[in-house]
Amino acid sequence: MTMKALTANRLDDGEAVFWMGGRWVDRFAEAQLWGDQDPDADAAEAHAKSELTQVVDAYLIDVIESEGGYAPLSYRERVRAMGPTNKLEHGKQAEGGASIEALVHAHGAARSTGRVNLIKRK
Amino acid sequence: MYRYDEIDRAILTDRVAEFREQATRRLAGLITEDQFKPIRLMNGLYLQLHAYMLRIAIPYGALTSAKLRKLAYIARTYDKGYGHFTTRTNLQLHWIKLRDAPDILEHLAEVELHSIQTSGNCIRNLTADPHAGATADEVDDPRVWAEAIRQWSTFHPEFSFLPRKFKIAVTAAATDRAAIKVYDIGLRLHRAEDGELGFEVLVGGGLGRTPYLGSTIRKHLPTRHLLSYLQAILRVYNRAGRRDNAWKARIKILVSSLGAEEFARQVEEEWEREPRDGVDLPDEELARIRAAFAPQGFETLPPVSAAFQSAKANDRAFARFARHNVKPHKVPGYAIVDVSLKAPGETPGDCSADQMDVVADLAERFSHDEVRVSYEQNLILPHVKLDDVPQVYAELEAAGLATPNIGLISDIIACPGLDYCALANARAIPIAQDIAKRFADPERAEVVGELKIKISGCINACGHHHVGHIGILGVDKKGEEFYQLTLGGSGAEDAEVGKMLGPALPADKVADAVEQLVEVYMRERAEGERFLDTFRRTGMSPFKEAVYADAR
Comparing C-alpha atoms, which of B199, B191, B184 is closest to residue B229? Predict the structure, then answer.
């Protein structure tokens, strides 16, 4: 079953972050997940877009189950949640652990971006 | 090397102070992201997948040891200890924090560097032949003209909101090391039959979604009219270039739709109409710039160095380095030394802060304090005495910078791709790493000979895939990475856009396919033929058959 999470980049350092019940967290494993049709997801996105000092470019992403955990559906979002694959010592993946493994091994019939309500920018 | 005057310095100091205030207001929430984004982009600060990315301009790819040391300091202090040299001869830092950006720009200004003209629809940072001032192949020093264009174009009020970004490349040599045919404007300095120095002016080249090679719109433009002629080209483009569709806004689309002849006619008309005085460079200013690049400090040396010859005879690894990474210099007894940023398994174009310090140190001791960046994502020490090459080699080797693979199959161009870039559809770096590891044996790479592989992670083509002998373009098929191969491209003086090999391949089949292509080449090649020559002779068939044989 597809779920949703809310992601953005933190304003002051650009770090990829995820919404968890009223605050932004660094780890995807801690992200709040909503059911596919849950209106609270849209409400959280609207709230994130309206505030000025915490994050940039907030958007909802599709999430799937992977190895008993969850992972973003699209490869792009998995890279954001892990770090660059050419330098495994950089980014969130440096921490390791089961939740990172779930991201590494996630395979989805992914949509092209996994980004909901995407307006493609030039 | 050109040094800033008071005007250059004042511009930069003001700009840093202005950006510091803007960033502070953004962090405090006094301006919105929509308001701030164009401002940060005008200062080279992009937001990517994991962090902000700062693109630092390296005008015409020229660095001094002080500049390179400063880049090392910034990479170490504000990033994760490395930087990525790009096909535009810029340096990208991929882990930058917005709150640090004003301090970084201040550090850069101390050594006459900045991030201006690295984003937005303006005239971007210039590219020039990285062998400028060192190669015997040139009729003049292209840096003189590149610097003149830099001064003219920076913050040019009329050309700050063009339909789209605008890139200019300059060379003065017959061998094209600046890819001038794939630039919005390519300038090739040459001498007319009467000896007069002038530019061949090419317009409308470009890669991206619709690749074109530039068309020559003027065979000989006397050098004194360079700036007025550029102004005429930019005015025609600014007036007639499309602004309704970003994909059709580059000058290449305008030149293609009008036809090069009609475009040239409009440029000439514009150029004839406007007074040139006040636009063209005054002689005294040209002399001031030229003096900054005057050759100095070269010793009178015999053309053959006993130390260099004996090192070649006694050390096979050094001999291989000398064959591929050491190029002839215009001054007897000197050489141009290529510093490879393509050690197999490493990220193409990446350079650690420690490695930057090593190269800066070598430049100071052995290369007249100069370092160049090539669009093929390597560094160059342009003025090394042949006597010193063995010592330079030894120190590069110790720093992991002496891979003897310049122009060979493992000297791969790759953009940052989906590992970093917000625009990418697929990764480029791991594909480059896979291929380079297959050909890591230097003897094998040498037997294969010149073969330029260029990889882009999306259609914007920062990795120049269209002009790779083997080009590789990452595409996204339902969320999975696939790669389209093209063959027969070239970004050099024999420029050509590559042709599609066949259906896209999954990521784990790309290196296999490259091996198969190389096998076909080795089987088919005639004496003295490069991969590109063989492909041009045989056409696509044997290559296509080999890669898709299993699929039939």
Answer: B199
Show which residues on chain B lie within 8 Å of chain A, measured between beta carbons.
26-29, 32-33, 47-52, 80, 94-99, 246-247, 347, 418-420, 424, 427, 429-430, 433, 476, 478-481
Residues B479/A111, Cβ–Cβ less than 8 Å: yes
| Domains of chain B (ranges, CATH numbers) | 6-110 (3.90.480.20), 134-292 (3.30.413.10), 306-398 (3.90.480.20), 413-548 (3.30.413.10)
- In order of B53, B123, B170, B309, B439, the CA distances from B119 in angstroms are 12, 9, 20, 46, 36
What predicted TM-score, i.e. pTM, was given to this entire model?
0.96
Taking the C-alpha atoms of residue B361 and residue B351, their distance in angstroms, rounded to an integer, is: 15
**Segment A36-49, tens digit of pLDDT:** 999 999 999 999 99
From chain A, the residues in CB contact with B79 under 8 A are: none
Q: Which one-letter DSSP state was computed for residue B59?
A: G
Which residue of chain B is at minimal alpha-carbon distance from A56? B33
Which tokens is B439 given?
Answer: 């050909």
> Nearest CA to CA, how far is A31 from chain B (Å)?
17
Q: What is the tens place of the pLDDT at every residue in B288-339?
A: 999 999 998 999 999 999 999 999 999 999 999 999 999 999 999 999 999 9
Q: Which residues of A touch B480 (CB under 8 A)?
A: 75, 110
**B505, B513 in Cβ contact below 8 A?**
yes
Facing A84 at nearest CB: one of B247, B419, B481: B419
> How far apart are the two ends of chain A, measured CA to CA in Å?
32
What is the rounded CA–CA span in Å between residue B486 and residue B514?
Answer: 11
pLDDT in tens, B94-115: 999 999 999 999 999 999 999 9
Say whether residue A14 is in contact with chain B using an 8 A CB cutoff: yes
* Inter-chain touch A79–B419, beta carbons under 8 Å: yes
Cβ-Cβ contacts under 8 Å for A98 (sequence gap 6 or more): A67, A69
Which structure tokens are listed for B503? 């259906």
CB contact under 8 A, A109 and B478: yes
- CA of B28, closest CA in chain A: separation in Å? 6
What pLDDT sits at residue B472? 98
Digit-coded pLDDT (tens) for B416-434 = 999 999 999 999 999 999 9
Residue B532 tokens read as: 């590109």
Beta carbons within 8 Å of B209's beta carbon, 6+ residues apart = B247, B459, B460
Q: What is the ipTM of this complex?
A: 0.92
